[in-house]
UniProtKB/TrEMBL annotation:
The keyword Membrane does not apply. Belongs to the Fur family. It holds the Pfam family FUR. Keywords: DNA-binding, Repressor, Transcription, Transcription regulation, Zinc. It comes from Tumebacillus lipolyticus. The keyword DNA-binding applies. This is Fur family transcriptional regulator. It comes from the Bacteria.
Length: 152
C-alpha cells in the first residue's frame, strides 16, 4: 500500500497545469500527511488555524477539485458527511459501526477479485472500493458495540 507523497502529488498537479493556491496546498498537505479520514469540517478546523481567512466554501471547492483530479478520495457512508482520504493507492477500509472511525488496510490486487461473473455485466472495471465493518478496539473496550446489539 504505497501512497503518493505530498511532494509527488504537488509535482503531478503542477505538471497538469493545476492552479495551486497556498490554501489548496495546505489542504492537500494535510490530507497526504494524515492517516485519519477527516470530514470537510475537520479539515476546515485544521487549515483555518494557519489560514484564518479561509472559508468553508473554499475547503469544499478544493476537496471537490482534488477528488476530481484523483489525488484524494471522497468516502461517503450515508451519514451526510463525507470523509476524505489522502491515500490514493488501492486499499481497503475498516469502518467502525459505532464511532465511525475509518482505518486503511492493504488489500489484494483487483485480479484476485475478478471472476467471469464480474465481467458478464459488460463493465470495464477501473477501480474498486472494499470496506470491512465492525467495532474498533476503543469501542470494543468501552462496550459501546455490545450496548447497540443489546438494543436490537
Amino acid at each position: 500500500m504505497h501512497r503518493s507523497s505530498f511532494a509527488k502529488s504537488l509535482a503531478d498537479l503542477k505538471s497538469r497545469g493545476v492552479r495551486l493556491t497556498p490554501q489548496r496546498q495546505m489542504i492537500l498537505r494535510y490530507l497526504k500527511e494524515t492517516h485519519e479520514h477527516p470530514t470537510a469540517e475537520q479539515i476546515y478546523h485544521q487549515v483555518s488555524q494557519e489560514f484564518a481567512s479561509i472559508s468553508m466554501a473554499t475547503v469544499y471547492n478544493t476537496l471537490h477539485r482534488l477528488t476530481e483530479l484523483g489525488v484524494i478520495r471522497e468516502l461517503s457512508y450515508g451519514d451526510m458527511s463525507s470523509r476524505y482520504d489522502g491515500n490514493d493507492s488501492e486499499h481497503a477500509h475498516l469502518v467502525c459501526e459505532v464511532c465511525g472511525k475509518v482505518a486503511d488496510v492493504p488489500c489484494p490486487p483487483i485480479e484476485r477479485f475478478t471472476s467471469p461473473e464480474l465481467f458478464a455485466h459488460g463493465y470495464a472495471v477501473g477501480s474498486y472500493r472494499l470496506e470491512f465493518y465492525g467495532h474498533c478496539p476503543d469501542c470494543q473496550q468501552s462496550g459501546a458495540g455490545q450496548r447497540d446489539s443489546e438494543l436490537n
